[in-house]
Amino acid sequence: TAAANIGLLPNECAVVEDAISGVQAGRNGNFGLTIGIARSVKGEILRQNGADIVVEDLAEISLQEIEDWFDDQIIQDGWNLSYTGFDPDDEKLRETLCTVGNGYFGTRGCFEGSQSSDIHYPGTYIAGIYNKIPTSIQGRDIYNNDFVNCPNWLLIEFRIGKGNFTNPLDMEVLSYDQKLNMREGILERSIVCKDHLGRITHIHSKRLASMSNPHLCAVKYSITPINYSKKLTIRSSIDGNLINDGVARYRDLNSKHLFLVELGNTGDGIFLHMETSHSKYQIMMNANMLVYENGKPIAVEKKISHENAKIAEEVEIDAEEKSGYTVEKIVSIYTSLDKSVKNIKDAAANAVSEVKNFEALYLPHTEAWKLLWEKADIRIDGDRFVQKTARLHIYHLLVTASPHNKDIDAGIPARGLHGEAYRGHIFWDELYILPFFNLHFPEISKALLKYRYNRLEGAKQYARENGYKGAMYPWQTADNGSEETQIVHYNPQDGTWGPDLSRRQRHVSIAVFYNVWKYVSDTGDKEFLNRYGAEIMLEIARFWADIAKYDESTKKYHIKGVMGPDEFHEKLPGSKEEGLKDNAYT
User: Fold this and answer.
1) Residue 39: is it exposed, middle or buried by C-beta count within 10 angstroms (0-12/13-18/19+)?
2) Which of 60, 168, 271, 427 sits CB 3.0–4.6 Å from 193 for a disulfide?
3) What's the pLDDT tens digit per position in 177-196?
4) Does any domain span residue 491?
5) Which of 536, 535, 516 minimizes the C-alpha distance to 525?
6) Residue 398 three-state SS
7) What CATH number should be reported for the domain holding residue 26?
8) Among 567, 570, 577, 578, which one carries the catalytic annotation?
9) Confidence of residue 470 (pLDDT cuts 50, 70, 90)
10) CA-based radius of gyration for the chain
């Protein structure tokens, strides 16, 4: 109201408040600048609740600084997803939203020093890596093809003196700031923590999943002792002792997918070779740790250790108060799905050895993101929240599928490369995703549609198994294109088994047909139409011509045995016949 009274939009105005409710109102009102005055409330709390700038007295900020905010800093803020203060209850959501990735793999935004718990869930998911294993439930074997949580390459821990390796987030957290820079694809954290002996440590970390080379990723992790001098031990690990444990309702299911093949020391660093138990996909990770003191490289002896499928290298440093100690962890990831790679062990070792330092990855990575944003950015004036939200959606689309997908035979999982919900299966989500890629990155759309073409024979086989001609795409697919929807599901409330009729959502085939037509219409790619698209559409059309039956009495065609997208109306009440007749959407 106040903004309207002076003829301005909220984003053109600044709010000055010293109360939590006031800065919350500034944030929720989408004002251009919210200034918090830290009188009776700590500045950290004001920032947590929406203050852009915090001062103890308004005299500390000048009109020039306010003008600078509106001229430049508000623009920079539109690229950042930022958090002030550590919130255990919100952490797993933050980890999802702060995922870094490049289409080949995605890594959740878990803190480098954290392992799986009720608060944290580290996860790295590689496009196409699934594993199908049984679980015995009430005397029945149920098979699930899961999107595998691959080895945790992030893990960096430290200890002070002869103490234990401790997660700083388990200490007293004095300050915490986290920022996902969407323009550069960089996740940063700054933490100040105090242990039970009163020793204060500042930690700053920066990570990336390279958009210039999809097999590389890196962490820059800095430690500064604020009020002590002591021996520091820093340990960098690749941890393969993982299970799929990210979704609570799946936890009664068999969740161990990875088994150790080999681990060891390369001379420059460490490596871990894992294999999925049933699909037999090979996963190779190499890591090298570079060490610096106050920005200068130092030579240190590395100690190698391992525990089951976890391998680590650690260094000891005689740390001095207020000096900075940094490790740069360079990691490579290769799998047996990389068909152009003859030997993934050699490729992973060579990729790491060729990287001089974090900066050598950072520069081409940010340049690659710059080129993506030049094609994809949507500029929105007048609404900070909508601007940031639009960029967040675009960012996560490009994390899930990028120009690197031209060399990847994988679809778009319902939850991206960000977690295990829906077991990482591919449904029909590309229906609303491909229009974006058609417009900005048609080569990505083409790669995703080729995933469907490569599974056309499977769709034809699935149609035959159900008594139809043509191609009937499954409701849920994973790596090989088979139907992955459960046949039956168990109701723990009454102890009964019932059919899972969601597999009758035949509209997925309509979506595939539409996606091909829309891609060709938007891009004019006649070569794709001739080589791939026309065959997909023809076979889907044959399926619908067969499933639709003519009724002489009504002089109309009818379809039966289908479920619509609401997934609720699965059959008529009291009917023994599965599915519905003439579902309106289908």
Assistant:
1) exposed
2) 168
3) 999 999 999 999 999 999 99
4) yes
5) 516
6) helix
7) 3.40.50.1000
8) 567
9) very high
10) 27
